[in-house]
Amino acid sequence: MKVSYFETGRYVAPPDMPREWPVPSGSYDAAVGTESLRGMVERVKFVESLGFDWISLSEHHYSPRILTPSPVVAATWLAARTERIKIAMLGPIVPVSNPIRIAEEMAMLDTLAPGRIVIGLLRGTTNEYLSYDLNPTEARERTDEGMDLILRAWTEPQPFGWQGRHFQFRTVSIWPRLQQPPPPTYALGTSAEAGEFAARHRIGLGVSYGTFEIMARATTYYRQRCAEYGWTPGPDDIIYRANMILGETDEAAEDALRRRDKQGAFPVRPSLRDALLEADIKRNVAGERRAQPVGGVLPISFCGGPDRVVEQIRQCREEVGAGVLDLSLQDPGTGDTDGMLRALDLFGRKVLPRIREI
């Protein structure tokens, strides 16, 4: 089992900060922002020293919850300040971006840090579409077309044109190109479309923030489609991003879970909530509406002391089939960074060595 740490550039929000998305930019404190991103570097160095395989970054907007609107900038900064840990871009939000720009930036990053980059291509969440004024009903089509274009830009040796429904380019011929062999690449999402796309293109699948049962539906569908396309994915072809609360004992972790549940997160402003619900595109591979987080708080998949968490990880491996866990050891946006560092250290000492053979 490989383990990744999900780094969010966590901004320590003061108690009086507005708690609805989008958070007013006037609430931003430059000194706190600078310290938050300095802490990002220190945490990544720390998890590298603990033996984590990857750190991951993702793109989000208009909130202190995840302070990486440009993950490629963060990845470049972190690659220059670490030695060996892989940096997973999970990932650029394809439907709100220029696909050729994504292809160029990923290839440049792979050239700057050869062998250390992992790429995930993401549809994103509905509030992200509202950030950049994208019609949510177009997101799936734009994602699939954009990912097709990115993959072709990485592999086509001759200049080519692209006249699609959502993207048009007279000439495409990117420089630099990806290193060979190319970095591991994943389509991210629990939808049938994500599983189909990943299987058809013989790339990995990343799933996130759901029960083992729901994630297993998505990964089972992916493996079935891979078989129909004539190939078999390995464990490292499946990533599972999840939250974990780890304590010295089960009781300590459960106490932390209760405290965390009282903190809440950043729910969407009521004026935008109807638009999000109307879009209703958060569906799992079975075509069911995915349960919405209570109060904007994402679910916890792993909770307990080291022994219990090891068994939960074993269960996850058996049911979901993921060979890479991408973990947040504290819910993004909460302020107890010292507690998070203690949890990371505990994971590195008492969990990581025991799950390598799972």
Describe the structure.
The chain is an alpha/beta fold. It has a single domain, classed as Alpha-Beta Barrel (TIM Barrel). It is 42% helix and 17% strand. It has twelve helices and eleven strands. The chain has helices at 30-50, 71-79, 99-112, 126-131, 139-155, 192-201, 212-228, 250-263, 270-279, 306-320, 337-350, 352-355, and strands at residues 2-6, 54-57, 86-93, 117-122, 160-163, 168-172, 185-188, 204-208, 238-246, 300-304, 324-328. Strands 1-2-3-4-7-8-9-11 form an eight-stranded parallel beta barrel, surrounded by eight helices. A two-stranded antiparallel ribbon has the order 5-6. Helix 2 (71-79) runs parallel beside helix 3 and helix 3 packs across helix 5 (139-155). The model is unreliable at 291-296 (pLDDT under 50).
**Largest beta sheet, briefly?**
8 strands, parallel, barrel
The separation of the N and C termini measures: 6 Å
Choose one word for the global shape: globular
The ordered string of helix (H) and strand (E) elements is EHEHEHEHHEEEHEHEHHEHEHH
CATH topology name, in short, is TIM Barrel
Question: SSE layout and pairings?
Answer:
Elements: E1 2-6, H1 30-50, E2 54-57, H2 71-79, E3 86-93, H3 99-112, E4 117-122, H4 126-131, H5 139-155, E5 160-163, E6 168-172, E7 185-188, H6 192-201, E8 204-208, H7 212-228, E9 238-246, H8 250-263, H9 270-279, E10 300-304, H10 306-320, E11 324-328, H11 337-350, H12 352-355
Helix pairs in contact: 2-3, 3-5, 6-7, 7-10
